[in-house]
Automatic annotation (TrEMBL):
GO MF term list: glycosyltransferase activity; histidine-tRNA ligase activity
Subunit: Homodimer.
Pfam name, any one: tRNA-synt_His
Matches recorded under InterPro entries: aa-tRNA-synth_II, aa-tRNA-synth_II/BPL/LPL, HisRS-like_core, HisRS/HisZ
Name by which UniProt lists this protein: Histidine--tRNA ligase
Binding-site residues for L-histidine, renumbered to this chain: 65-67, 92, 106, 110, 298, 303-304
UniProtKB keywords: Glycosyltransferase, Transferase
Amino acid sequence: MPTSPETLTEARRLRDLFAAKGAQVFKADVLQPADTLLDLYGEDIRARAYLTTDPLRGEMVLRPDFTVPVVQMHMEAHADPARYTYAGKVFRKQETDETRANEYVQVGYEVFDGQNPAAADAEVFAAIAQGLAGLPVRAATGDIGVLMAAVRGLRTTDARKAALLRHIWRPSRFRALMKRFGSVKVTPARAALLAADDPFADAGPDIGLRSREDVIARIDALRADAAAPPIAAEEIALIDAILALRETAPNVLSALRDIAVDMPAISDAVSGMGARLEALADRGVDVATLEFEGSYGRTSLEYYDGFVFGFYATDRPDHPPVATGGRYDALTAQLGQGRAVPAVGGVIRPDLALGLLPC
């Protein structure tokens, strides 16, 4: 699909804007090795990315974003702190919304700097806002880190917490797990399976990719889960309260401080949010009117684990976000072979930005 000259010009303008802030211009191959994405996100990524097989290089993927190759390059370079910018096409499948583009230009600004995470969050947010200056957009923010801290603080088994953390980015599945872990009820079929002395009696021949040992391990895990007490209703209510928050950032911060009294596990994340709002204010952001949603960012690619944000057309609620971003510290640890570097970044779609200009 050809890209308009106007979009390319705007992409260069944004990239040059970010480069002027000290960002190194980064270029990534359009075809990327698929194994990294499959290791990160599992087979689910096949529903969202374009994969192909090269006879020499193996399974490859059309670049779904720039963040993963940027992180890979940075973790190999060991150049901390560092800033990067890039401009180029990304490719995403759109199975449920045929009106959304499956390839488009993306311009980004990434900061790897652990000296002051709140200041880095504010720097990236302000840089993206500057790139959109003069356009009719509103900002929405959230913090996946608060929800993750709340899950880690639950008084339940490590296996249950791991399952909930794995499905934070799948809201319906997360909700189903919370409901199941908060109940003592077990379906009759599962109860019969767990009670059986020999679950394989009359099971017939083994079929499928899972071995009998895999099935036994899964049954043992289900038995351990069934023996665990349910998550307290009070804790589930606190998680629900966090997810239901939707107000201006200062009001949400006040509400989260109240919740932290009953759920101390989120205290550090809430303090981090407070520091971020101060850093944003120092950069001229009107935090008094900044929107915050407790569930924001949970349908994005699964590498965001802290501050998340997006910019949207004020009069086009059906319009895709013009810009998005967030913190992804855990991704650097996954790709850094044990070495982690605090990192945050944001991207702008220049085609959507141009579409908001007055005719």
